[in-house]
Please model this.
Amino acid sequence: MIKHGIDQEALITQFSQASAKQGEAIRKAVTEATLKALQGRELSLKNIKQVLNTIAKAASTGAAGSALPAADVEGLLTKAVAGMDAALEKAVQANRKALQQIIDQGADVRETQVKKALADIEKMEDTLFAALRKAADGAQASLEGPWAQVLKATQGKGTGTGAQASATITELMDSAQSNLRRGRALGMSASQAMLDSYSTLVSGVLIGMSEALAQAGAAPAPSRRK
Model:
């Protein structure tokens, strides 16, 4: 079944059939599926939430069908969380690049759209946690222990998404303050158009970042001369 651009059945099968040694393959598959789904829509917080909920549910359903012991299932769920976190970090970076373009034109952080964009960035880690808790609450009893450990560990150490979001907000606020000190005024014709289509702009940035990442991954390793 395809939902929100995600082949749930493929993910479920991969999780249910994975061995304990395939954790890294699971992480990569989750990252790629999450990024692909995010690229196919406006990168709003609502759409991000839908994608994360769908991915987390598929991972949980697949893990429930695994014949592995609880400790190994926990490991697979941990890798699934890492995969979603990595994809969401890219979404934060895409927001930062898009916002930086707007701020560089003199946009004020008090602008409604900019304030909302910053608030959404700040909420991304919580959105990830919410998706994980929802998947855990709806999981089979056999996953209660593994999910509890994964949630405890993830919330305890925080995520790359959360760290990226905090750094992004600080950087953008500093950049806006610097512009203000230099007396840069808002270029309404260009900046307002970008503000009005902000989510679309971010989606375009994310697609570019993902394509560059895919090309880097497909590039042949440099030859080593003896």
